[in-house]
């Protein structure tokens, strides 16, 4: 098992890379996903269409294709020379936002009808209804699916490694290029990912327990 | 709760306000698209010569071959994952402890690892010269685990009376599984199974990374080997290939939706689950009734708010 000890700094960098790209892109996905979910239930038709188009398109695009778009097309539109980390987390964040959007939307659907009706009858606007009444209650049902979405995001972040990001898959590639036996390398990378995914599901379980309410 | 519950029927003021939002929103979206197009045109990516390359027979042939290669990998992976899925599902429900234990470990391990890691390890470790088989094997292992969980959920959702009745008329364990439980499980889970096949199709794009000449790899090859006006036609190739990809995925998704609707129409048999497409390299946990327990969490822990993102397909 020399692979790990001999190359520990690279492995550590890879691990930190995976964690940071996961963290940044989850944040992007969360913000964007909630915003698009808001669009999808809003009273303004063009925004609704935009939300639907966004979700359909993102969910039916292979992530690798999205990465290609972000690495070859987006720098041409914005400005050349963006860092792979930024591009990678944007691609991952955009892709995952569609799944977050669907989770939030179905969470909104589980809030009892009376809640929104009551909010409306005391004169709240759409934004107020959503912000003060519906979304806080939807959070509770959205948390469990979000946990699996973020775990999937962690696993998807491996693709960023193939696009010149320093992370665990990059380490695996590097080690196999250096001629190490693939099996121990695979095991160590697997352990690295398992640590991250277990942490995420642990955190979410904690969150779930804190938000639990006796009904 | 339909969207309309969230807001009142708009009065005259609200109608005006909504119209303003609509105009501003559409303008913002149109402006974004326009800026992108202008920027791309500025750099010469939209020049006619860039798109002219698709008139060459050679490049068309390349694309046709690539579609075929993608479909071949997808076909192999689909068959492989379904076969493996059935075996693992039956294994996990087996009465023999060691079999159950092996199947559970296998499923939980490979389901919680990134697919790319598995594919790459198989490619480098065992099938270096056969990238298609490496891709198909990796996809089969990963998606087989997911399909196994889907089938297990399906089998568990068959009413208990069914298997009790089958045992009562003297069927053996194998007969009960193959003639009573499995057909009903497959029928009820068909939309989800097909949604997972869509994910499999999307994931064939990972062949890009192990240099299997599927659509994306071909796109990269075309773009990096042709030079037009001193530039590489990445934008036009990605646009063309991307459209093909998305069209294929949408077609398969449409099939899933159609089957789901059709299944819902029929009143006989057990309830058909809604098609669930989870985040690409997905976990089945969003399935209603999947017992995610024992997953140790790595695969996700849903179950409760099942069917999240179910209906949007």
UniProtKB/TrEMBL annotation, chain A:
PROSITE patterns: ABC_TM1 (PS50928). The chain crosses the membrane at residues 15-39, 60-79, 185-207. NCBIfam families: HEQRo_perm_3TM. The keyword Cytoplasm does not apply. It is a multi-pass membrane protein. Belongs to the binding-protein-dependent transport system permease family. HisMQ subfamily. GO terms for cellular component: ATP-binding cassette (ABC) transporter complex. GO terms for molecular function: transmembrane transporter activity. It comes from Streptomyces violaceoruber. Keywords: Amino-acid transport, Cell membrane, Membrane, Transmembrane, Transmembrane helix, Transport. This is Amino acid ABC transporter permease. InterPro entries: AA_ABC_transptr_permease_3TM (IPR010065), ArtM/GltK/GlnP/TcyL/YhdX-like (IPR043429), MetI-like (IPR000515), MetI-like_sf (IPR035906). Residues 15-204 form the ABC transmembrane type-1 domain. It holds the Pfam family BPD_transp_1. It is found in: Cell membrane. GO terms for biological process: amino acid transport.
TrEMBL record, chain B:
It is found in: Cell membrane. It is a multi-pass membrane protein. One of its GO terms (biological process) is amino acid transport. One of its GO terms (cellular component) is ATP-binding cassette (ABC) transporter complex. Its main location: membrane. PROSITE patterns: ABC_TM1 (PS50928). Pfam families: BPD_transp_1 (PF00528). This is Amino acid ABC transporter permease.
């Amino acid at each position: 098992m020399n692979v790990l000890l001999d190359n520990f700094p690279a492995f550590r960098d890879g691990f930190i890379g995976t964690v940071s790209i996961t963290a940044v892109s989850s944040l992007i996905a969360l913000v964007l996903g909630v915003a698009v979910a808001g669009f999808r239930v809003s009273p303004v038709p063009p925004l609704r269409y935009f939300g639907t188009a966004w979700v359909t398109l993102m969910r039916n695009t292979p992530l690798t294709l999205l990465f290609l778009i972000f690495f070859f097309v987006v720098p041409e539109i914005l400005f050349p020379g963006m860092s792979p980390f930024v591009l990678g987390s944007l691609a991952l964040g955009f892709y995952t936002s569609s799944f977050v959007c669907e989770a939030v939307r179905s969470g909104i659907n589980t809030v009892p009808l009376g809640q929104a009706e009551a909010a409306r009858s005391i004169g709240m606007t759409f934004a107020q209804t959503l912000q003060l009444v519906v979304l806080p209650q939807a959070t509770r049902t959205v948390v469990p699916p979000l946990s699996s979405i973020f775990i999937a995001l962690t696993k998807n972040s491996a693709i960023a490694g193939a696009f010149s990001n320093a992370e665990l898959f990059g380490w695996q590639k590097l080690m196999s290029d250096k001629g190490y036996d693939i099996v121990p390398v695979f095991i160590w990378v697997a352990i690295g990912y398992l640590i991250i995914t277990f942490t995420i599901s642990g955190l979410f379980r904690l969150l779930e327990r804190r938000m639990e309410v006796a009904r | 709760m339909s969207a309309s519950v969230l807001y009142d029927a708009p009065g005259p003021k609200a109608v005006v306000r909504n119209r303003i939002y609509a105009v501003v929103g559409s303008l913002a979206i149109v402006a974004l698209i326009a800026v992108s197009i202008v920027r791309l045109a500025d750099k010469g990516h939209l020049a006619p010569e860039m798109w002219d390359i698709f008139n060459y027979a050679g490049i068309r042939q390349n694309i046709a071959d690539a579609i075929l290669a993608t479909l071949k990998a997808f076909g192999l992976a689909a068959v492989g994952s379904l076969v493996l899925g059935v075996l693992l599902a039956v294994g996990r429900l087996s009465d023999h402890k060691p079999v159950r234990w092996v199947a559970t470990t296998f499923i939980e391990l490979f389901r919680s690892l990134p697919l790319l890691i598995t594919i790459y390890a198989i490619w480098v470790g065992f099938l270096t010269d056969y990238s298609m088989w490496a891709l198909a094997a990796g996809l089969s292992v990963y998606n087989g685990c997911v399909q196994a969980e889907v089938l297990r959920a399906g089998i568990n959702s068959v009413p208990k009376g069914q298997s009790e009745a089958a045992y009562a008329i003297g069927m053996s364990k194998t007969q009960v599984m193959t003639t009573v439980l499995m057909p009903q499980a497959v029928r009820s889970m068909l939309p989800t199974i097909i949604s997972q096949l869509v994910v499999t199709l999307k994931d064939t794009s990972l062949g890009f990374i192990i240099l299997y000449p599927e659509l994306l790899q071909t796109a990269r090859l075309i773009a990096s080997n042709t030079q037009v006006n001193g530039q590489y036609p990445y934008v036009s190739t990605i646009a063309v290939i991307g459209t093909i990809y998305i069209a294929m995925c949408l077609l398969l998704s449409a099939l899933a939706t159609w089957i789901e609707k059709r299944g819902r129409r029929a009143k006989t048999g057990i309830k058909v689950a809604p098609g669930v497409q989870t985040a690409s390299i997905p976990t089945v946990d969003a399935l209603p009734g999947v017992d995610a327990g024992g997953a140790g969490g790595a695969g996700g822990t849903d179950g409760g708010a099942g069917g999240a993102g179910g209906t949007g397909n």
